[in-house]
């Protein structure tokens, strides 16, 4: 009888068990465990631990993989009532521990690393309800103060829709070179562009990318063929429902210029159902995945949809198919590092669902699902707010 060495058994177990982290608007950060050996999806994904942290309304997690530190943004507060930014250690298996919590302006909804030789020496936070961006030097300590605060208003740029009552930065995203950050602003119908000073972390605002009035750009995703190759930006607009694609070129002084090449509605027949809005976007190896909130494409299972599109050789996109999100209001989705699994965070259903990503680029069977906290009302800041792979 042959037995496997202990380290081989441990490695096999580790390969079949995955960790995810999720936030809920109830003030809790959850650690989830996915056992790929368990073929029952309702058992394969489970809550390993939960911790009340990250302010009144935890909204977004960004993981620094080399250090294992999670940075959690708090959507509580507004421009005058402060929120918080929290650093959490993931060193203890199956749990998170609070390292530091600092005051930030309110309504933080997204964050991203930038700067320094490693590209993770600073963190930028987008504040939807406070019309601002803040930046912080890392690592975070209890005494860390914001490095920079950038605020915006609509006095010279009125927008046409009720949701555009103010500037609403919804995301912050580094370009592939790491020398620029962009921030889609749903309220101002534009994308802010910032030059990064990598050594100081200071951001200098450049020429914005304009969108048609009433578009409401929400999130974006860059693709790049590497040094000297094509760089493109794919964006989803919450209010117009469009996927808009730009070729990105760089001048001699390396400033980016954005050339729109396509705008399409990522839905059959090119029209979204009334009330449906795109939310998250992920791209992997020429495949685009867009979560669609409140499209109710699968009423029999009370599910909204994920749209899959394929990227053509010229960078444009072609709609391919819809698959269920297996819940209501899929606010977030994220592909794992291996590219074979996609985690979907359904806000109103308060569920995390993991599906397979097939070699064809299509989304396949459910391998795990779990309820995380209380369900929320559609259209309210309630329920599950984000999910990220560990």
From TrEMBL:
GO terms for molecular function: 6-phosphogluconolactonase activity; isomerase activity. SUPFAM superfamilies: Nitrous oxide reductase, N-terminal domain. Residues 1-16 form the signal peptide. Transmembrane segments: none annotated. Keywords: Isomerase, Signal. Belongs to the cycloisomerase 2 family. This is Putative isomerase YbhE. It comes from Aspergillus ruber (strain CBS 135680).
């Amino acid at each position: 009888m042959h037995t496997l060495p202990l380290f081989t058994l441990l490695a096999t177990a580790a390969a079949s068990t995955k960790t995810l982290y999720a936030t809920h608007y109830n003030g809790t950060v959850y650690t989830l465990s996915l056992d790929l050996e368990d073929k029952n999806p309702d058992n394969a994904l489970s809550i390993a631990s939960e911790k009340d942290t990250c302010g009144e309304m935890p909204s977004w997690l960004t993981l620094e993989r080399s250090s294992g530190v999670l940075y959690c943004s708090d959507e509580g507060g507004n421009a005058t009532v402060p929120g918080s930014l929290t650093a959490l250690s993931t060193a203890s298996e199956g749990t998170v521990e609070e390292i530091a919590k600092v005051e930030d302006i309110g309504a933080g909804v997204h964050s991203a690393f930038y700067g320094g030789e490693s590209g993770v020496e600073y963190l930028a936070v987008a504040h939807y309800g406070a019309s601002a961006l803040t930046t912080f030097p890392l690592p975070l300590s209890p005494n860390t103060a914001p490095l920079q605060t950038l605020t915006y208003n609509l006095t010279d740029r009125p927008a046409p829709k009720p949701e555009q009552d103010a500037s609403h930065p919804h995301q912050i995203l580094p370009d592939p070179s790491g020398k620029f950050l962009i921030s889609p602003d749903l309220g101002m119908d534009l994308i802010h562009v910032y030059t990064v000073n990598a050594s100081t972390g200071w951001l200098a605002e450049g020429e914005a990318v304009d969108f048609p009035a009433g578009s409401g750009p929400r999130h974006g995703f860059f693709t790049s063929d590497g040094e000297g190759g094509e760089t493109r930006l794919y964006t989803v607009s919450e209010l117009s429902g469009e996927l808009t694609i730009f070729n990105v070129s760089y001048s001699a002084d390396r400033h980016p210029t954005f050339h729109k090449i396509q705008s399409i509605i990522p839905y059959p027949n090119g029209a979204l159902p009334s009330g449906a809005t795109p939310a998250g976007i992920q791209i992997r190896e020429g495949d685009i995945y867009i979560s669609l909130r409140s499209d109710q494409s699968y009423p029999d299972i009370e599910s909204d949809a994920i749209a899959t599109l394929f990227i053509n050789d010229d960078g444009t996109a072609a709609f391919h198919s819809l698959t269920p999100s297996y819940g209501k209001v899929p606010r977030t989705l994220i592909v794992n590092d291996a590219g074979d699994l996609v985690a979907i965070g359904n806000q109103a259903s308060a569920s995390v669902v993991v599906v397979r990503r097939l070699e064809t680029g299509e989304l396949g069977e459910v391998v795990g699902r779990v309820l995380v906290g209380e369900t929320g009302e559609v259209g309210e800041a309630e329920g599950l707010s984000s999910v990220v792979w560990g």
